[in-house]
Amino acid sequence: MLEKPGPERKRFPVLQKIRVKASLYVLVLLISTTLAFSIIALRIMNQYILSEVIKRVETLSRGTAAVAGYSLMSNDLLGLDNIVYRVKATNPDIESMAIINPEGEILVHSDTRRAGETHRPAAGDVLRKAEDGTTVSEVQGPARELYEIQTPIVFLDKAVGSVIMTFNKAVVNEAQQAARSRILGVFGLLLLVGVASSVFLTAFLTKPVQELSKGVADLKEGRRSRPLRVYSQDELGRLTESFNEMTALITSQKNSLSRYAQDLEEAYVSTVRVLAAAIDARDTHTLGHSTRVAGLSVELGRELDLSAPELEDLEIACLFHDVGKIKIPDSILQKKGRLTTAEQREMRRHPEYGAEILAKAPSLLKYIPAVKYHHEWFDGTGYPDGLSGGKIPKAAAIISLADVYDAMTSDRPYRDALSEEEARAEIAALAGRQFEPDLAARFILLLQKRAAALIKGHGE
Ligand SMILES: [Fe+2]
Questions:
Q1: CATH 3.30.450.20 residue ranges in the chain?
Q2: CATH number attached to the domain at 11-187
Q3: Ligand 1 centre from 322 Cα, in Å?
Q4: Which end of the chain is more exposed for a tag (fewer CB within 10 A), N or C?
């Protein structure tokens, strides 16, 4: 199963990139620096080791030349051989050692078979030559690489021969290898510490940026957040302080704005309420109509077990249900005779006009379905959209019943009011056509209960 990305990772991808970039940058810098220092340190160390080994062999060669003079002058070959043997035995890194006479004849050699041979001068580069005549040469042999140190043997200011020592570069290489391992180990450790520090440092440095980023995201999404913590007094700290001030300003302006918007909306709602009441008061026949429709509708709503908020919305929707009539001219609204087809068409637009008025305030939007469809018929022959059956909103169906009943039982310019009983019969007759049958039945039952309660009240 794939693991979902964490919310922090998802919300701050840019920050993750900054952190990765910073870590990578520090890492590359660390590795290249460590590598450069390692190479430089190794070179210096190699040079140092070579120089020390050469110095030691030079000293050994000079020491040998100093003690060999007497034996050479007295032609004591056994003494010379003894010297060579002892020096070679106590310095295993010396590859070979010989003492030659001024003519180049090998008098004694650590390899005794070579005694009597003629010494061939080294065919390599002379690395240096000291004042006492000691020379250091680099010999490039076919199979191995050697260094040759030659020191003249001087007796009573006269050169009587030379001491020749060779040592293999491999000796230096071994020492260099050991030093290299140690240096690389130390630098590796330094690199590890550096990497760990860089990861910690970038996390520490990006923390304030992360806070800022979170603050900006919160502000963008409209979540109120506490002022951000100021971690330092540098540019980032000042930026955080500025952000906190800006957030406070935006929040206060937003609050003022929403307060103004609320006031404006309340004023509009009040205006619509006044308008609705004014419509009812426009002529004596409809005075109090909306209030009576509201009372009846809420009673029916209660019978249908609507919740308290639903009943409250239903009551307000009733008060607004004919508000669209404000756009219908008096010549139509208060006409004594029958309306012409055109007048009737205009009259039938009042639910849509009502919906348009309510659409202007967000808090009134929820009343639109009830207002717009309170003249729809169950069989689909009503207006404005010809909705039928269950498509008619319940609140609209309830208002429709109460509205028709109140109109029937009120005097109109063109006819007298029906009695309650007659109105009930009319509604029963229209059930299934204009009204939803079950709802109409519940309404008739309610009216009967009301009538019975009224008679009982009069009787008492
Ligand atoms: Fe109406």
A1: 11-187
A2: 3.30.450.20
A3: 5
A4: N
351 CA to middle of ligand 1, Å? 6
Indicate the pTM of the whole model: 0.49
Q: Tell the residue number behind the tokens 């330094």, with chain if given.
A: 190
> How do residues 160-199 score in pLDDT, each as one tens digit?
899 999 888 777 788 788 888 888 888 889 888 888 888 8
Torsion of CA 191, 192, 197, 198, to 10 degrees: 60
DSSP per-residue letters across 261-301: HHHHHHHHHHHHHHHHHHHHHTSTTTTTHHHHHHHHHHHHH
Cα of 321 to ligand 1 centre, how many Å?
A: 6
Q: How much distance in Å is there from the Cα of 48 to the middle of ligand 1?
A: 108
Cα(374) to centroid(ligand 1), Å: 7
Instruction: Give the residue carrying structure tokens 């020096």.
Output: 87
CATH number of 262-459: 1.10.3210.10
Q: Where in the chain is the domain with CATH 1.10.3210.10?
A: 262-459
Calpha distance 212→216 (Å, rounded):
6
